[in-house]
Amino acid sequence: MRAIQFEQTGGPEVLQLVEVETPKPGPGQVLIRNQAIGVNFIETYQRGGLYPVKLPSGLGGEGAGVVEAVGDGVTRFKVGDLGAYAGGVMGSYAEYVVVAADRVVKPPPGIDARVAAAALLKGLTVEAFIRRLYPVKAGETVLVHAAAGGVGQIMVQWLKAIGAEVIATVGSEEKAELVRGLGADHVILYRDQDVAAEVKRITGGKGVPVAYDSVGKDTFEGTLGSLARRGWFVSFGNASGPVPPVDPLRLMRGGSLVFTRPTLFDYASTTEELDASAAALFEMIASGKVKIEIGQTFRLAEARKAHEALESRATVGASLLIP
Ligand code: NDP
After folding, report:
1. Ligand 1 in contact with 33 (CB < 6 A)?
2. What's the count of helices (H) and strands (E) in the chain, helices before strands?
């Protein structure tokens, strides 16, 4: 089968298309023929060396497709089912992938492989962070950075469905237009405007009770300055680089703030958590409250181009690789 691998860390050019043996499912595993592969920002951190991986390595943790074979003891899936997975794999940028059956979910009728691969990892992240990490309540004002991105678009729509007021940040006027269309109440162009000053103006000086920051280094100060007393700083990504060390005394001076650095995998660590989270996500999609934008598709062989687009902020919504 064809797969993407890298032998050394570096820029998008280290991603190589190679021929490797198609894997076989062991006990408890399923073999999935990927119909769509989700591209996630984490893969740029792994490729670039920010998150070390053992080399040479495959890349990618998300995808959806047809179950082609099942290993001993698998009852959750049968051959021919549609399966989608987000995590538990290092190497979904490939025609086939082997995944533990209890890490795979079955999208309901009406959700095809492309939508599932575009939605699952990003949507589970949103579900976990806005419903369980910090349960957002109707009427609360929430700051969402990089709101036109894959995670961002789902977060804005889901927060609006809860009844929250959303302050969205984006990098361009086109992206601002897009997130207004998704229901964002206020939009800040964070490359030009002072985020904390704008948030304080919008909230009448109070600040927000929770801010979701996946941009990292460049937005750290602005996010810290945007929080209300006892506000939550949810730092969940490093698109612009890792955040600097956090001084606890700054959290005290900011008003007894909470700083957390969550990862999806700790919120979907059991099959029960995974299934419940996926069910909530699929329900949001089926109801039409959350629309999944597949902003870009690339052929598997074009993984390099997909990374170039993601890292140059040229994408909106989710990006897919199609084998
Ligand atoms: P996005 O589609 O959101 O792409 C990243 C966006 O970040 C860009 O489009 C850009 O939007 C913005 N950005 C700001 N500064 C930069 C920069 N210097 N370089 C590149 N982009 C920048 O990606 P994803 O939806 O895949 O992921 C969003 C974030 O969420 C990532 O940081 C990812 O690591 C994180 N994440 C974390 C998870 C967790 O478990 N903790 C799980 C899933 C995702 P703009 O042009 O508007 O500035």
Report:
1. no
2. 9, 16
